[in-house]
Design the sequence.
């Protein structure tokens, strides 16, 4: 996995600023894995994609995923912290990448699948569309019902547990218990955005004082940029 320079971070943030989160995830992974084509990454099972995002998070920003959500019982703000190392070690994707269910074979969902069904406003219709896309062998979905879709979804989740990361939280105020879905793309993008904005501020501060170009300033190490910024602000 290729390390990101500050210039890489700024370029990545600029290119992905207006993108859908799914596309941001693919763009990010294509940047740090130039040996893999973006089309291939789009066809990875979601658990494999998320594992790669965790690896990038650890390498670029460290293993701590810190966030917060609102309690559904009393609106209390609940903070949480996740260890990316532990999350990656705990969840392992299916090596086969296939599910055998009701005399049919299904592959695991991918980013491309989610992008295709995402425009469907009805959740049941979207789920059935996803099932049809993932059907790789067997009869058509005649006599297929909502219960079959739900059971297949559970089997897919068991085979690819990192496809959707959910955590359980208990409110310290009202003791309400709830589950929250953790969007790894959003976590990673928040880190990228914070680093990009910090770099923009450093370039602005140093350029205003010394007249150096952005390229010259970004060529400095992060430690030197920080010291120059501190001296300008002193």
Sequence:
């Amino acid at each position: 996995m290729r390390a990101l320079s500050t210039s890489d971070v700024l370029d990545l943030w600029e290119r992905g600023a207006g993108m859908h989160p799914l596309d941001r995830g693919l763009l990010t992974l294509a940047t740090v894995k130039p040996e893999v084509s973006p089309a291939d990454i789009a066809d990875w099972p979601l658990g494999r994609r998320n594992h790669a995002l965790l690896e990038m998070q650890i390498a670029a920003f460290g293993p701590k995923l810190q966030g917060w959500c609102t309690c559904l019982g009393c609106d209390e703000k609940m903070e949480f912290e996740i260890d990316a190392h532990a999350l990656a070690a705990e969840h392992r994707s299916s090596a086969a990448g296939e599910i055998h269910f009701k005399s049919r074979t299904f592959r695991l969902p991918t980013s491309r699948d989610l992008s295709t069904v995402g425009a469907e406003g009805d959740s049941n219709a979207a789920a059935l569309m996803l099932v049809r896309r993932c059907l790789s062998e067997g009869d058509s979905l005649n006599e297929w019902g909502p219960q079959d879709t739900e059971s297949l979804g559970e089997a897919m989740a068991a085979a690819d547990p990192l496809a959707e990361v959910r955590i359980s939280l208990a409110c310290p105020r009202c003791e309400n218990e709830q589950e929250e879905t953790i969007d790894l793309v959003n976590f990673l993008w928040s880190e990228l955005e914070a680093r990009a904005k910090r770099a923009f501020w450093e370039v602005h501060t140093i350029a205003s004082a010394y007249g150096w170009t952005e390229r010259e300033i970004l060529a400095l190490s992060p430690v030197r940029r920080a010291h120059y910024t501190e001296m300008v602000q002193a």
In short: The chain has a mean pLDDT of 93. Strands lie at 64-70, 77-83, 98-101, 104-107, 135-137, 165-170, 177-182. The first strand starts at residue 64 and ends at 70. The two ends are 38 Å apart (CA to CA).
